[in-house]
Write a structure and sequence with these properties.
The protein is α+β, with helices and mostly antiparallel strands. It is built from seven helices and eleven strands.
Length: 252
């Protein structure tokens, strides 16, 4: 994890590049509250008989936002810290596109992620895409796959065997939808991987993860906010920081 300092020129430059990339795509920056009331995923504490969460997942907060807010702000972004229940802190930079056509918003989000990585001089990465529906009935199996723990699924020794075992309901339409995304993005770094899973249950449709040499740098997907379609993703800024630092050492 990045140890944040009051002055860190590299982190400052990374933030500038990300902000500029999101700004030029006509996204508006928001400033999420650090403390939120309600039983959201994250580090919780009780005060005056009320439950509060410290810096929970941004999308979870949006799901509880009045949809009138998005009428004039359908494109938003943030750079914010996130704290998990185990006191792990991560700096994230992400954006959300709300109330737009599902396919077009999926394409826009993926292309912005790729554009931003290019501007960060990170070109060695892969994007794995899949669908959230595949493991909805098999949450335990999904978690085992996420951990690459195939023994936990019943001594099955490969991701392919798990996919074959489960009646995932992969339809021709689903395959066509993902192939259409591949064709539209038209980049060899993006591929369909049905072993791609996301922990949050709010996803509804496309999900994707971005890796640099097997190191997670971003993830996101499609979801619904009060019957409106939405799509978003977030960068793990800690990972981007470390990758950039390593690249600078190589150049020297």
């Amino acid at each position: 994890m990045v140890i944040l300092k009051f002055i860190d020129p590299l982190l400052s430059e990374i933030s500038k590049i990300i902000r500029n990339s999101f700004d030029t795509c006509n996204y508006i920056e928001i400033f999420p509250q650090i403390i939120n009331s309600g039983k959201l995923n994250g580090l919780k504490f009780v005060y005056n008989n009320c439950i509060y969460t410290v810096a929970p997942d941004i999308t979870l907060r949006l799901l509880n936002t009045n949809k009138k807010y998005f009428a004039n702000n359908p494109r938003i972004y943030y750079i914010s810290g996130s704290v998990d229940p185990y006191l792990g802190e991560t700096l994230k930079a992400g954006l959300e596109l709300i109330n737009d056509d599902e396919f077009n918003s999926n394409i826009e989000i993926i292309k912005i992620a790729m554009k931003t990585l290019k501007e960060l001089s990170i070109n060695n990465y892969k994007i794995d895409i899949s669908l959230s529906y595949l493991y909805k009935k098999y949450s335990k199996t999904r978690d085992y796959i996420k951990k690459m723990d195939y023994n936990g699924t019943g001594n099955i020794d490969s991701k392919e065997a798990i996919i074959d075992l489960i009646d995932t309901g992969i339809s021709k339409n689903n395959i066509e939808f993902l192939n259409k995304i591949l064709k539209t993005v038209n980049d060899e770094r993006i591929n369909i991987d049905f072993g791609t899973v996301r922990y949050f249950n709010y996803y509804d449709g496309l999900i994707f993860e971005i890796y640099n040499n097997n190191r997670f740098i971003a993830g996101g997907g499609n979801y619904k906010i009060k019957r409106m379609n939405a799509c978003g993703f977030s960068f793990n800024v800690d990972s981007i920081y470390n990758i950039t630092k390593e690249n600078l050492k190589v150049k020297k």
